[in-house]
Amino acid sequence: MVTHSPPPPLLLVDLDHTLVEREGGPDAWTPTFCTTHGLPAEAAPTVFTLFRADRSPAGFARIAAHYGLPHTGADLWEEHVAHEAARTHPLPGVPEALAALRAAGWPIAVVTNGCTDIQRAKLTRTGLLPAVDAVVVSEEAGTRKPDPAIFHLAAARLGRTLTPADWMVGNNPATDLRGAHATGLRSIWITPTPTPPPPPTHPTPTHTAPDTPTAAALLLDTHPETQSGPRLTSP
Ligand SMILES: [Mg+2]
């Protein structure tokens, strides 16, 4: 008799500060923007204030109107997306960790809060998009972590429904850990060592790890049945 092994657990994983890191702060693009468009350096704070009020092509249309720039909001938004992606890189060992998990049969979905264009551009630019099976970005999903709906959507995009055997890995207690707990998932909190205690208002993770490659090794150790990938067994 041939029996199927249980399917491997799902891995839902955060993007920023978990798989990738961005150089510079949230306003680090504004000096380049001013230089590119012939604005004085002192305009940078105002550009950023206008941007923060509306992070979209419409927001950049307002910036263009404010400074009389001969560009559409869509063009400036595209430039911004490319700039944000260009200053984003994979964290050390992340491509190899994702490859090891997938080789062991783990379906992987990125679950991230943010703008769809920017988050997807980061994944493309860093080469991580082909390393995962699904991507859910809060803007296009219409829901954000820690809402369980976004985790269920990620599982649906993997063709599965969530079970308590599935995992969420991320660095943010307020979104990743709280969401995992609310959804009934196991969790790994990516946090520097020595590990500070989670804030008392947040749930305790199943495990902690200093980085995603360590978390991946932990997952593979926790689920030795996945080490050689999904398989058929013949007793
Ligand atoms: Mg994060």
From TrEMBL:
Residues 193-203 have a biased composition (Pro residues). GO terms for molecular function: hydrolase activity. Its cofactor is Mg(2+). It comes from the Bacteria. Residues 188-235 are annotated as: Disordered. InterPro entries: HAD-like_hydrolase (IPR051400), HAD-like_sf (IPR036412), HAD-SF_hydro_IA (IPR006439), HAD_sf (IPR023214). Residues 204-221 have a biased composition (Low complexity). Keywords: Hydrolase, Magnesium. Pfam families: Hydrolase (PF00702). Residues 225-235 have a biased composition (Polar residues). This is HAD family hydrolase.
